[in-house]
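Lay summary

Proteins are chains of building blocks that fold into shapes. Our project writes down both the chain and a compact code for its shape. Here are two examples, one after the other.
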Amino acid sequence: MDHVKTYPKAEDDTVLMDWKFSFTPNDTMDLTERQLKNKVNPKIILEVRIGKGMISKGLDVIVEDFAFSGLMRIKVKLQIPFPHIEKVEMCFLGRPEIDYVCKPLGGDTFGFDINFVPGLESFIQEQIHGNLQPMMYEPNVFPIEIAKMLAGNPVDQAIGVLAVTIHGGFGLRNPDKMSGTPDPYA
């Protein structure tokens, strides 16, 4: 969080703030030795499908060294009953700056950053902003119905589907000292 600006003249049951934020996981200036030792470079592996139906091929694309920053407006609607927050609405006040390294071939070892291909980085950036704009760029807001979610009531509609495949795990800690091996679940 770089800075927060609040608006005290908002409605009584509303907290309105502008957050200037930055996510820079590779900035190690303020890290302690222990944090540096445990630091992990975040990576996302995406599968890009080329072709249609039976004649398609999936290619792995590694996105790493990503960082982003921007200015976001947060509006929190308060309520008296628990959880005391009815709804949170958020939107970007401008296009966030997004930086990343995208390696489609060869992965970690031999992959090259495709952003060096002329015109491709701006095309990918426009695709990202084109998808975010109708959801989160002012005047559009991304609402999170906190009270409904915690009450167990169905939210009005789904905004998408996320499929997660866990291929394995390592370095798992056993929270139960009496049993032999950890029993993780997802």
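And here is the second example, written the same way.
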Amino acid sequence: MDIGCGSGLSGEILSSVSPADGGPHIWVGMDISASMLDIALQRDVQGDLLLSDIGQGIPFRAGTFDAAVSISAIQWLCNAESSEVNPQGRLSRFFNGLYASLRRGGQAVCQFYPKNDAQRSMISNSAIKAGFGAGILEDDPGTKNNKLYLILTVGGGELQGDITRVVKNMQDVDVQDGRRKLSRLGRKDRRGNKAWIMHKKQQMENRGKVVKASSKYTGRSRRRVAF
């Protein structure tokens, strides 16, 4: 599951994982923005898309997903747009729903930008109260490129409660943003050109579908003739 999927960049990476690496993955994307989901539809992403406010919970049956990812979304649950909005309640509904929707042994990674230490603690404590094993991994700490990753686990023996010690063992992990690479490719592989068509064909083949053979005419622009 891709939480706050936007235009589907993260999900597209999941769809492109080769069978040798356990892919391609089947995924569902959730986002509160109809306009961003419309962009995802125009980009013809492979996942299913759901217009939903994660602050109202995760509307899937228990144990539906093996894993979840989220990029720059959960910090918005801390904002109160009116006096009737309770950030703590929105965080609680989100993490309780996420915990229930993941199978036992499942994991989630949420990259987020807390406004301050209070928000950071509120988010991680809400995850722990929901039952998650939770810890925070920092990438490039002390720099303007600093990113925080909330690492969550469901069950799994010792990985319960505050697992910060476990996460600290990951400090030497090289965090790579595959979406940035995909975005660069996207500028070259415009929808409908040969590179885009070949990429989509490869995705379909990876999913076991029958794909028409390519030829020298694949992706070739056709001359427009006015009558």
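What can we say about the second shape? The mean pLDDT is 81.
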